[in-house]
UniProtKB/TrEMBL annotation:
Subcellular location: Cell membrane; Membrane
Record-linked InterPro entries: ABC2_TM, ABC2_TM_bact-type, ABC_2_transport, Nod_factor_ABC_transporter
Protein name according to UniProt: Transport permease protein
Transmembrane regions listed in the UniProt entry: 26-45, 57-78, 98-125, 137-161, 168-186, 225-246
Amino acid sequence: MSHAAADSMTMIGRSIRLSRRNTDTLVMSVVLPLMMMALFVYVFGGAITTGTAYVDYVVPGIVLLCAGYGAAATAMSVADDMTSGMVDRLRSMPIRPFVVLTGHVAASATRNALSTAIVVAAAVAMGFRPDGTAVEWLAAAGLLLLYVLALSWLAAGLGAVARSVESASALSFFMLFLPYLSSAFVPTDTMPAALGAISEHQPITPIIETVRGLLTGTPIGDNGALALAWSVGLLVASFLLATALYRRRVRD
């Protein structure tokens, strides 16, 4: 285990350095959510009724959209390693298979932490007024971290099976789309019945409702337990799937 931990730290350091050098991805992981937030707050916000200030309503959804973009970048980074010969070099070394993916997942979490902090600061400048306590902020941050890790491990698995960086980008597209099919931007009860039912019973909606409730004081109900169950379940399933797909790919 000590060797695995040391190998993981080495790969984490490598992936973070690569992220720092890949300025295009780093900048877009911040710029895209900021553009989306400005679009919804200033263009659509005046026409959408949520029972509260729209900027307070939409910020949790933008944060999860930001996480989806960061995870999609993880899939492309893993695919680049798989197709550039980097993994072939690592196969000759006595390291555990999952540590290669661990580095990419840790870099994804770091990128998301940075972009989330910038997005929240920009939201405050746009009028976002959270009233959560320090404990509630920590709980929201912990839930978001679980979600980001789950999504990043899933993206790492998709990157491991992709045959090119372009196909990895296509495979991970649904991570950017899924928040739109939730309560991120409009209440689910304003949607058609069938679409509203899907939105209410997919994993992102309870996560958004829990984060929104923790930060702005709206009712959480049973969404907290559902959000935690979804996040932990997705994290475990994504980790197992990603490591299995990686092992299968490197054996081919």
